[in-house]
């Protein structure tokens, strides 16, 4: 997920969105793992829709609501983790085997994004849909390719430290509010036999989340225009505060912030650790809360900004449009696919999705209910103390992929943070 160079968004453009969303809030859950389900066999008739999603745990409720609102319609769907999905979707589109509707990330940062899939003509132009004109400018930028809208973006997500309230209370420790407190918290938690944060970087997309949470404050706190300067060639990853963010990530690891063997821990397994109190929390997106509640229905979970300096007033949190849905340009059921997209973007559909996924709606009339654990994220969004997910401002998907694989190599001592940042610069400078 990224922005194209010509569509780089000034981070301050989140302000109009915040104004539109002030009365709205969040709830819980996105997901991973692999799952398949179907409401009917086959496809191609006007009553059966095929769909592929990474939103396991939340898409199911949306599908049920859509089917209830459209008697006789059945949705055949599959869900899978982001890594698996991104590896498959372009191949399916190229071979004509892709579903009618599919998950599409905003911008241009991975193989399943708006720019990457729209450029070769794989996605249907949705510009004439009523909701497309209502998207705030900050979302239009990453939902469009060459001025046409291809992605139905329904939610805003954030990244931070999510704590298991019961486990934290039992530990006798308090959630840290400064960088110095964070390192002490990690050492104390490890000493009690319950690591501070679960980290499941066997799934390589997870490697970026701690780094993004740190970089929001370390890189963008002093310079909100960093990405504009990066695009203009006025700075680089390797020659900037990204080196500090990388160093802090490694310092957290050395301080015992994570459980043993993060590289051998999957995203799914990390959820279990945090949900059951084997760790005190996890650094993840807000979607994780409903997943944790699925594993621990009586649990309470609270998200805060991850401390990156000793000045809490300067903390920023990553927050940006999450994955949306696009329509296959060669869909067997285009009419039904557009009907589904319209439902997702309707107040009723968006409310179901946002409350299940724990995201802020992109349109102001969805009436999403708040999850109490997301109060701080909501406050940061409303106070314009957020920055977009970093990869949404990069010119091609290879930059992010280089970072993800590089971070795994750093954790396995096969590479260094400096080498990863230099490799990211190499890929960034190649442009689109």
Automatic annotation (TrEMBL):
Cross-referenced SUPFAM superfamilies: Periplasmic binding protein-like II
Pfam family, one: SBP_bac_8
Entry keyword set: Signal
Record InterPro entries: Bact_solute-bd_prot1, SBP
Keyword Flavoprotein: no
Domain of life: Bacteria
Signal peptide positions (record): 1-36
Keyword Nucleus appears in the UniProt entry: no
Protein name: ABC transporter substrate-binding protein
Organism: Paractinoplanes rishiriensis
């Amino acid at each position: 997920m990224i922005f194209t160079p010509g569509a780089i968004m000034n981070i301050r453009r989140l302000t109009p969105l915040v104004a539109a969303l002030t009365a709205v809030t969040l709830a819980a859950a996105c997901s991973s793992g692999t799952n398949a389900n179907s409401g009917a066999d086959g496809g191609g008739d006007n009553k059966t829709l095929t769909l592929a999603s990474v939103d396991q745990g939340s898409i199911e409720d949306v599908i049920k609501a859509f089917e209830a609102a459209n008697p006789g319609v059945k949705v055949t769907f599959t869900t899978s983790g982001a890594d698996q999905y991104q590896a498959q979707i372009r191949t399916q589109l190229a071979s004509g085997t892709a579903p009618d509707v599919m998950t599409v990330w905003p911008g241009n940062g991975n193989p399943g994004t708006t720019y990457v899939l729209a450029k070769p003509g794989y996605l249907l132009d949705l510009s004439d849909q009523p909701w497309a004109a209502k998207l705030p400018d900050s979302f239009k930028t990453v939902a469009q390719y060459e001025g046409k809208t291809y992605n139905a973006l329904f939610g805003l997500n954030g990244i931070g430290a999510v704590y298991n309230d019961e486990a934290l209370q039992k530990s006798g420790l308090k959630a840290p509010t400064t960088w110095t407190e964070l390192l002490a918290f990690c050492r104390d938690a490890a000493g009690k036999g319950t690591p501070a944060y679960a980290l499941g970087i066997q799934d390589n997309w997870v490697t970026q989340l701690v780094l993004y949470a740190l970089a929001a404050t370390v890189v963008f706190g002093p310079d909100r225009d960093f990405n504009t300067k990066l695009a203009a060639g006025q700075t680089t990853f390797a020659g900037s505060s990204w080196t500090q963010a990388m160093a802090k990530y490694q310092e957290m690891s050395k301080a015992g912030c994570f459980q043993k063997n993060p590289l051998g821990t999957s995203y799914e397994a990390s959820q279990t650790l945090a949900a059951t109190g084997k760790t005190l929390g996890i650094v993840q997106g807000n979607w994780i809360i409903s997943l944790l509640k699925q594993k621990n229905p009586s649990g309470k979970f609270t998200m805060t900004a991850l401390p990156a300096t000793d000045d809490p007033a300067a903390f920023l949190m990553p927050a940006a449009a999450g994955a949306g849905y696009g329509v296959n340009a060669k869909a067997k059921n285009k009419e039904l696919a557009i009907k589904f997209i319209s439902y997702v973007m309707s107040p009723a559909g968006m409310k179901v999705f946002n409350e299940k996924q724990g995201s802020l709606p992109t349109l102001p009339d969805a009436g999403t209910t708040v999850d109490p654990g997301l109060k701080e994220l909501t406050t940061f969004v409303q106070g314009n103390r957020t920055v977009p997910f970093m990869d949404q401002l990069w010119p091609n998907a290879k930059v992010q992929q280089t970072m993800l694989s590089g971070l795994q190599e750093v954790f396995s001592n096969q590479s260094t943070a400096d080498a990863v940042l230099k490799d990211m610069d190499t890929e960034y400078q190649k442009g689109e």
